[in-house]
Amino acid sequence: MMKWSIRSVTRICIACQETTTGDILCKSSSSHGRALEAASKRGKQLVAEMAVPTPVFFCSIEPPSLHAQAGLEHALACLAKEDPSLRVAFDADTGQTVLAGMGELHLEIVRDRISKEYKIDAELGPLQVAYRETITNKVSDTLEFQRRVGESHHYVKLSMTALPEKSGKVLELQHTKENAENLGAIRPYQMSAVERGLHNTLACGPLLHCPVRPHPGSIDKSRKCELPIMVARNEARDLRGDDPGRYLPARPSGGQPRLLEPVMSLEISVHEDHFSVVLGDLARRRAQILSIQQRLDIKVIECLTPLSELKGYSTALRTLSSGMASVSMELLDYLPMDSMEQSRAIQSMTGISTSFSSPKCA
């Protein structure tokens, strides 16, 4: 329930609690119902959905002392409500609070607001790129689970196949004559446990514990992962336990996991006197030039560049062009890395030097 404080004369909202960015505010429930009814008659949405970009950078954030920990958590909760593109998570392995945002400037502004508005001098850790993982080959795995409860014997068998290519669904049941009876015996709470276990498994890949997504054959924003499953008839009721992921194959083995790196679409405007210097710097950053246009004495470069090569690029560009250049960028997609760059990324994230191979999933 929202709490309002309104001036009766001007009808200007002074304070509104328990709302976040993207919420729609109505003066009453009846007006909300009328608006929804009118929108349904027109066959359109009430308002356009707000597109929230995917964070591409993350770093740890630490309070100056344990005494300021509670204040920092409150500040981050308030900022996350205001900014949907800011993600706050807790890493159980390291015990650190992790911030994810759209870039270096974004995270620096968050730290600056925490310092000025909440009087907490928080410290940010090294900036890291948010990679994704995928598999390059089709891989299957089977898990059998048995348990006796009293005089009842519970048994379940899950056969799962992970496909690298895109599909229309994240989870797809394989309907055949052989398993039609088995699928009909699955209870809704059991299917819910399977889905939760599947999503938990896909949230942590075998290389860098990054989220897993389909292998990109081409740039397509509608890609999803297809994972057909087959379940035996004698289902185990323990599938609805606290940790449904343990009733699934932990991670399919033999799928040749690969890293996907975020690739940014850049548009750089630079004076023609500094064009060759900027172009040479882009070549060093593994940029793929798409087009070069002339606008009076300004050269406009459109290119694709891996995000890992763009740390501090705005400052570097101003230095190279003596302040005569500007850049805008947005996330295009996640694309596969070659073996050498993947080895460098793994070494940078883990500190372990390794030559590229096709490691098996845990």
Strand content: 25-35%
| Beta strands, count | 16
**Average pLDDT for all residues:** 77
Number of individual domains: 4
Nearest-angstrom radius of gyration? 25 Å
Identify the overall geometry: globular
Largest sheet: 5 strands, antiparallel
Helix/strand-derived class?
A: alpha+beta
Helical fraction:
25-40%
Explain this structure.
GO terms for molecular function: GTP binding; GTPase activity; translation elongation factor activity. There is one protein chain. By secondary structure, the protein is an alpha+beta fold. It has 4 domains: 4-42, no CATH class; 57-130, Elongation Factor G (Translational Gtpase), domain 3 (Alpha-Beta Plaits, 2-Layer Sandwich), CATH 3.30.70; 144-255, no CATH class; 259-334, Alpha-Beta Plaits, CATH 3.30.70. The chain has 8 helices and 16 strands. The protein has helices spanning 29-42, 69-82, 104-118, 180-184, 188-202, 275-284, 313-320, 339-350; strands spanning 4-6, 13-16, 57-62, 87-91, 96-101, 123-124, 128-129, 132-135, 139-149, 152-162, 172-173, 228-231, 257-271, 288-295, 298-306, 325-336. The strands form 4 sheets. Strands 3, 4, 5, 6 and 7 form a 5-stranded antiparallel β-sheet that branches. A hairpin with a 2-residue loop joins strand 14 (288-295) and strand 15. It starts with a strand and ends in a 12-residue tail after the last helix.
